Amino acid sequence: MTAAGSAATGESVKYDAIIVGAGQAGPPLAGRLTAAGQTVAVIERKLVGGTCVNSGCIPTKTLVASAHTAHTARRGAEYGVSTGAVSVDMAKVKARKDGIVLGDRSGVESWIEGMPGCTLIRGHARFEDPHTIRVGDDLLSADRIFLNVGGRAVAPDLPGLADIDYLTNVGMLELDTVPEHLVIVGGSYIGLEFAQMYRRFGARVTVLERGPRLTPREDEDVSAAIEDILTAEGIDVVTGADGLRFSRRDNSSAGFEVVARDGAQPIAGSHLLVAVGRRPNTDDLDLERAGVEVDARGYIVVDDQLRTTAEHIWAMGDCNGKGAFTHTSYNDFEIVAANLLDDDPRRVSDRVPTYALYIDPPLGRAGLTVAQVRASGRRALVGKRPMTRVGRAVEKGETQGFMQIVVDADTEEILGAAILGVGGDEVIHSILDVMSAKLPYTAISRTMHIHPTVSELVPTMLQEMTPLS
Ligand SMILES: Cc1cc2nc3c(=O)[nH]c(=O)nc-3n(C[C@H](O)[C@H](O)[C@H](O)COP(=O)(O)OP(=O)(O)OC[C@H]3O[C@@H](n4cnc5c(N)ncnc54)[C@H](O)[C@@H]3O)c2cc1C
Known about the structure:
By secondary structure, the chain is an alpha/beta fold. Helix content is 31%, strand content 23%. The protein contains 14 helices and 22 strands. Strands 1, 2, 3, 4, 5, 6 and 16 form a 7-stranded mixed beta sheet that branches. α4 (57-74) packs across α7. The termini are far apart. The model is unreliable at 1-5 (pLDDT under 50). It binds flavin-adenine dinucleotide. Flavin-adenine dinucleotide is lined by residues 20-25, 43-47, 50-52, 55-57, 60-61, 124-125, 148-150, 169, 190, 281, 284-285, 317-318, 324-327, 329, 358.
């Protein structure tokens, strides 16, 4: 079924449901709706799979794996292994990444195309009226509409930036040579992952962060440990870079100079990555024609079950401002499907916030920071253990970072945790599961864990907690 020719007659092609955006929530929702016998149109203007598959999680974690391999090879002698000189063939690194991305994207495409009753339509969707969507000359209508339009990198208005070439996460993933000097504006999750991987590929790397420390949303000791990990590998970190000014480099056809703040020495770079945040793709949907409201930052306003201000329209994923991760987008799909198809009133407020930062070693996070717990004024217990006192980390020769956990002293529920260390992205899940089940911390501290693992020290850390001052 196609919508071709509908505009000529002025009539729309009718579906039971329209999904705008084939990101992390749209395709699985199409799967559930079509399995329930509904006709569904999925509209995608660019690449099926959206950010995660094409320019986010999957390509970056593929590159992180190549960077980790280069790093480990360089450290071979520490383990008694001779490797000779280590070189990085960036074209091959990129080809490996492209192959994995293509495989993933093709998999999602074939999945959508194989769903009975589902039509994949290529093009930019915008509202014509509350039940009608226009894609080029074609009109489509449906009783229910689901928005999964994601977001894109913010282009900040910084002096001189418009006069020089710069990259976002999308352009960075197309590089097939190692930059001479990569300068990164933004010392948060996306910027730091690129910083470490390109340093390991052989680039000189400088990170410019406006705030007083990297990853300002984390606890101060977490930020400090992250900075230590990066500077130990030779990455230059400039914090308090609050007066950025860019200019083309004199006597050079390529490259630029940046001044971090008034009076600072200019820094010359060959490549510039701007990673200062993301904004939702909601400004080109004509949402006002559908009665769908957005907040001051452009995020679609939704209730706890992801219904927008129009009763028949839902918004899932990065565009609703309730999360900025693949797992939050997928969880949004599960919430919408549960409510509409399973008579199960799942809600966004049921979930425990969780995410990882994929520097090496990674940071796994769940729930509140220690600073947030302190600010809440509640009585709490805190446990902390450096990775130098985790046997498995010592055996692996990866002792950077620490584990930290904070527990409500009255209810005994775990309020938050940060595992910055080898395996931290996996270890955090045993804590997350107990938090989600609302069990007391003793559910972990009394459980026998496997030796030798990083996870075996989580019960010990919980047994050794002290009052939070
Ligand atoms: C560099 C980077 C690394 C990341 N790493 C991680 C990570 O390790 N773990 C993690 O959980 N998250 C990570 N993220 C975040 C993650 O990629 C996003 O949170 C996730 O992809 C959001 O999914 P989504 O379903 O909301 O939207 P998207 O995946 O962005 O999909 C939205 C889709 O809608 C389409 N679209 C938009 N407007 C229209 C329109 N008008 N008409 C038709 N189609 C439209 C877009 O083309 C896109 O394909 C990373 C992001 C970046 C940038």
